[in-house]
Amino acid sequence: MEMIIVASEQQKRLIMIFSRTTAKQPDKALIKDLDSYKINSSVYPAFKAASDLRVERIRLPFGDDKNSALDGGDFLYRYLAKGYICLGDFVGQPKPDLSPWGVRSVRKQPKIGFGL
């Protein structure tokens, strides 16, 4: 199982992609293929065009949704704590658990995404 984070440091925005299998695409191909992911955010077109996109791949324990949620939450919290905004609405499993870091709810920005 894998969680992929595509982030732009200049824009302070990111997207998360979840997969039950490990993605075979190299990072450059994944970035070129961002049109194939449906992200419900009005700023997604500008995000896809960013020149500083980078990919981080996080392997999550397969079949252990509780630990996968904690691991995913750890990586997501690292970005959100730096001021990043996660684009779109959350879709996918496992849902990252941010509660160990004291986060009970996220701040939603209509038509954009969510952050701390």
TrEMBL record:
Lineage: superkingdom: Bacteria
Official protein name in the record: Uncharacterized protein
Organism (species): Vibrio orientalis CIP 102891 = ATCC 33934
